[in-house]
Amino acid sequence: MVITVSSLLRAGLAVSLLGAIIISAFAPPPSGRARRIRPSWMMVLAVALYAAGVVLAIGGYFGLAGLTCVTGIAAFAVATWLSRPADPGEPPADDGRDDGDPPSGPTPPHGPEDAVLIDWDAFEREVSSWAQERRARV
């Protein structure tokens, strides 16, 4: 059995990608400057790289297409790592807050005393009247 340089490079690339995926799942969460990068932008970049890889493959540039898709996989691994919260109680990194202020708007209910009561009978009456009006129009 002859092992070519090309086979070794492909195996090394596969091991590197698998390592990047495993590290993104199990490495310590990012802190400091890395927390400022929004994971959603990394995901957009990864999808764009996949799309570029498909276009390159259709054009016959298979080597460049593979390299582009590999870069997309690495971008998804980085996005996965960036989206990990520093502790289990912390919201995900890409929650739309750039300034560190708490989110605005109503707070979610914390217990039964804060729960919103819904009048299901009134809801059913409204749905029934809407359905009857819709049937009458058709």
Rg, rounded, reads: 25 Å
Low-confidence stretches: none
What global shape is seen?
elongated
Q: Could you give a short account of the major beta sheet?
A: none
Q: What structural class do you assign from the helix and strand content?
A: mainly alpha
Q: Distance between the terminal alpha carbons, to the nearest Å?
A: 74 Å
For the secondary structure, the number of strands is 0
Overall mean confidence score, pLDDT: 81
* Fraction of residues in helix: 55-70%
Would you list the SSEs in sequence order as H and E? HHHH
Tell me the β content. Answer: under 5%
- Number of H/I helices: 4
Q: How would you describe this structure to a colleague?
A:
The chain is mainly α. The protein has a domain at 9-85. It has 4 helices and no strands. The protein has helices at 5-26, 39-58, 62-82, 120-137. α1 (5-26) packs parallel to α3 (62-82) and α2 (39-58) packs antiparallel against α3 (62-82). The longest helix has 22 residues, at 5-26. The protein is elongated and about 75 Å long.
Which terms summarize this structure?
138 residues, mainly alpha, elongated
Summarize the SSE layout with pairings.
Elements: H1 5-26, H2 39-58, H3 62-82, H4 120-137
Helix pairs in contact: 1-3, 2-3
Briefly, what is this?
The protein has four helices and no strands. The chain is an all-alpha fold.
